[in-house]
Structures are given as structure tokens and as C-alpha cells.
Structure to design on (355 residues):
């Protein structure tokens, strides 16, 4: 079929997306260091099949590491799953991951979870590597591939940044990379890691939505900060959408403090983009070219692929745009009562609306 439609610019792989999400989970207002001996951390768990369905997204809490928090929340649910961490795990977290039979672990190359003397940290990291090897579970550094024009993606997902956000510099590569690379036994790859980290951090910062919107219903500062962070995650998810016109992201939050479902709008699983209509929703010039009938909305995908089938009283759905009437029916049917989305407005697209 001759359609003359261009391919959507998006994040290349889900693996890239999940590592960026794990990294950004450290910015959550819920994320704190478990104790003085450990750094805070973020985690994304997904199934290892073709779909890579999200099982859980979370972060460390007081007295609980990110790995511990997720596994204790959804015990015996990580079998054969892939885990993305913002830092290399400590020995205790390694035992949790091994006991839950994960298939592989990827982490961002910055200071590991464990703090302390270099010699003690280095010794524990060696033990961690040995534990995974003996358990036949792979563990390695992962850096997203970001060799593309990220501005093209930000335009399509309607990412907005005010002047304050535009003037904010992306998080810098750690100054002690020499020490970190030594601890991670990656001295010979320092330059490559630094180069890729800079690109990935620039991409992450560029895709994050403005944090200076105003909520229609005023809540406590900590709650509003949590809402803003969750909406930023929606924009990261939207960056994977293959809708040529508008990328939308959606994420589901559980009352126990972790995200249990995520989705973005796009074409059906396994569909070859070039063989499906991609014309605008109201395209009437050529019958059969409108994308509407074949496109699946972000909210529907998040609900269809949510890990927890049971919806609790205080669960929340976050979305980078207000749900359409059809998706609102789905949301109401499954029992979610609270929706938080970014208000569609020609005057200020950064306003957040709570409903």
C-alpha cells in the first residue's frame, strides 16, 4: 500500500528505555538510602520474552534496598525475568535475585550500592560476580544506545520544558569514574563508558517533562513531587511509541509503593509498521489509511499487560495526556478510581491535572 508516511522516531530498544527508567527512579521522592552503609537505587523488572512486559518498577526505601523492596512485594515472581538496576547490587541483593531465579541483571556503571573502604567494596563485588557465575545468571554493565536525534522524539511526545528546566544541565558523569571503573573492573573501557554515559544522560534529561506545572487540586508537597516524577516516567515510556504523530505513555502505581504496569501507544504486537495504516485519526482523503482502528492506546496497553490483575482501592493511573472516553471506560471497569495526567492546553502544556 502506498501511503507516504514517515516512520516514527523513537528510542531504539525497550532495554534502553528500562535502564533510563531505573536510573530515573533514583530521582523519585520515595527513593532514599536504606542506611548509611548503602547508596539508594532504582530497579525495573521485566519478563525476558519478546514482549518484555514490566513486572515491577521501584526504588530503595528506608531499611530496604530496591531489590529487596520489589521481591518482598511480589515474591517468587521474578523467575526468568531480566532486572535493570541503577547500581551494581550488594551481596545481600544478589542473594535475593538468585533465590528468585532471575535470568539476567544489568546495571548502570556508577558507584555500587555498597559504601565503604575501596578494598572492602572491591572484595564484596568480586563475591557478587562469583555468586552470579555459580548460579549461571549473567550480570553486566548496560549503557543505552542513543545515537539518534532526541529532539525529534521530544517533539512527538509533546514534552514541554519551561525556561527553568531548559537552563538545567543534565546530570554529569561522576567525577570519580577512575575509581568506579576500577571497582567494577572496567579500567580499560573508561573512555567508552564515559562517552556513552554522557549521551545517555543527555537523552534522559531531554526527554523528561517539565517539573514546574501546577496541580488543579492542591496536595502535600511530597505527594505532588511523586505525581510529577510518575508523569516524567510516562514521558520516558512515550519515547518508545511507534505512533508517527503522537507518543503517549502510561504507568500504574500500586498502593504498596511500586509501579506494576506500564504501556505506550502503538501498533499491535508483531505488526510490521510499513504494512499498517498511519494516517491521522480524521484522515478522510483515502479510505483505509487512518491509523485509529489499528492503534492501541497507552492506557489500554498498561491495563492489558499489568502484572497485578487485582486492582487495589488506592491504585493510581498516570498518563502523559488525558485518557479518551473509550480508555476511561476500561479504567473504570478494572476499578481504578484515580487518574493523574498532563492537561492538554494550548496555553500551558506543562500544567498537570489531577482527577
Amino acid at each position: 500500500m502506498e501511503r507516504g508516511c514517515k516512520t516514527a522516531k523513537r528510542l531504539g530498544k525497550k532495554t534502553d528505555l528500562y535502564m533510563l527508567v531505573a536510573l530515573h527512579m533514583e530521582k523519585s521522592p520515595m527513593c532514599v538510602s536504606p542506611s548509611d552503609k548503602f547508596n539508594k537505587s532504582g530497579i525495573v523488572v521485566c519478563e525476558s520474552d519478546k514482549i518484555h512486559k514490566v513486572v515491577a518498577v521501584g526504588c530503595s526505601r528506608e531499611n530496604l534496598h530496591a531489590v529487596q523492596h520489589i521481591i518482598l512485594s511480589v515474591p517468587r515472581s521474578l523467575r526468568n525475568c531480566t532486572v535493570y538496576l541503577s547500581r551494581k547490587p550488594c551481596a545481600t541483593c544478589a542473594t535475593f535475585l538468585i533465590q528468585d531465579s532471575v535470568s539476567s541483571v544489568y546495571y548502570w556503571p556508577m558507584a555500587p550500592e555498597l559504601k565503604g573502604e575501596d578494598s572492602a567494596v572491591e572484595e564484596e563485588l568480586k563475591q557478587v560476580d562469583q555468586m552470579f557465575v555459580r548460579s549461571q545468571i549473567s550480570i553486566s554493565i548496560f549503557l543505552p544506545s542513543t545515537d539518534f536525534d532526541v529532539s525529534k522524539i521530544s517533539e512527538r511526545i509533546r514534552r514541554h520544558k519551561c525556561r527553568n528546566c531548559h537552563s538545567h544541565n543534565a546530570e554529569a558523569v561522576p567525577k570519580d569514574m577512575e575509581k568506579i571503573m576500577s571497582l567494577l573492573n572496567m579500567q580499560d573501557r573508561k573512555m567508552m563508558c564515559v562517552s556513552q554515559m554522557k549521551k545517555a544522560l543527555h537523552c534522559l534529561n531531554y526527554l523528561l517533562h517539565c517539573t514546574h506545572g501546577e496541580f488543579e487540586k492542591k496536595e502535600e508537597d511530597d505527594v505532588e513531587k511523586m505525581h510529577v516524577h510518575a508523569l516524567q516516567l510516562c514521558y520516558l515510556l512515550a519515547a518508545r511509541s511507534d505512533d508517527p504523530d503522537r507518543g503517549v505513555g502510561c504507568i500504574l502505581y500500586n498502593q504498596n509503593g511500586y509501579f506494576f504496569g506500564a504501556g505506550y501507544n502503538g501498533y499491535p504486537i508483531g505488526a510490521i509498521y510499513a504494512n499498517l495504516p498511519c494516517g491521522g485519526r480524521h484522515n478522510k482523503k483515502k479510505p483505509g489509511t487512518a491509523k485509529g482502528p489499528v492503534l492501541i492506546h497507552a492506557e489500554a496497553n498498561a491495563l492489558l499487560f499489568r502484572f497485578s490483575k487485582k486492582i487495589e482501592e488506592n491504585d493510581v493511573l498516570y498518563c502523559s495526556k488525558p485518557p479518551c472516553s473509550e480508555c476511561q471506560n476500561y479504567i473504570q471497569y478494572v476499578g481504578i478510581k484515580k487518574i493523574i495526567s498532563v492537561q492538554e492546553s494550548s496555553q500551558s502544556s506543562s500544567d498537570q491535572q489531577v482527577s
About this structure: Residues 190-207 form the longest helix (18 residues). Strands lie at 42-47, 54-59, 81-85, 104-107, 138-141, 249-253, 259-264, 316-319, 338-342, 352-354. Confidence is low (pLDDT under 50) at residues 346-355.
